[in-house]
Amino acid sequence: INQEIIDWSDYIFCMTEDQVASLEKSFPHVNNKFHLLTQYCGGSGDIVDPSGKPTRAFEDCARQLDGLIASVLEKITSN
């Protein structure tokens, strides 16, 4: 991610709290753009990275992301 992407974006969603913290440290002037995806949707916790795990972990992650992204789109478009 770079400043151009940050400037272009209204929202930047992250899968982990560590990702949010890293971006906030690197770009402190726009901390309001960074969101933990689960928290933004009313939940909590990180989305588990399925890398190196069986296919089922990727499928579970995809289902979780699909639901969260649908929630984000509904929330953003209703504002």
What does this structure look like?
- With 79 residues, the protein is mainly α.
- 54% of the residues lie in helices and 8% in strands.
- The chain contains four helices and two strands.
- Strands 1-2 form a two-stranded parallel sheet.
- The longest helix is centred in the C-terminal third of the chain and has 23 residues.
- The radius of gyration is 14 Å and the shape is globular.
- The model has no long low-confidence stretch (mean pLDDT 94).
Write the layout of secondary structure elements.
Blueprint: H1 3-8, E1 12-14, H2 17-26, E2 34-36, H3 37-40, H4 55-77
Notable traits:
2 strands, globular, 79 residues, mainly alpha, two-stranded parallel ribbon, 4 helices
In short:
The protein is mostly helical and 79 residues long. It is 54% helix and 8% strand. Strands 1-2 form a two-stranded parallel sheet.
Q: Kindly name the structural category.
A: mainly alpha
Number of helices: 4
Our measurement of the CA-to-CA distance between the termini, rounded to an integer number of angstroms, reads: 26 Å
- Rg, nearest Å: 14 Å
Q: Kindly estimate the percentage of residues that lie in beta strands according to DSSP.
A: 5-15%
DSSP, total strands: 2
Average pLDDT metric: 94
Identify the strand order in the major beta sheet.
1-2
Helicity range: 40-55%
The low-confidence parts are none
Oligomeric state of the chains? single chain
Sheet with the most strands?
2 strands, parallel
Order of helices and strands: HEHEHH
So what's the overall shape?
Answer: globular
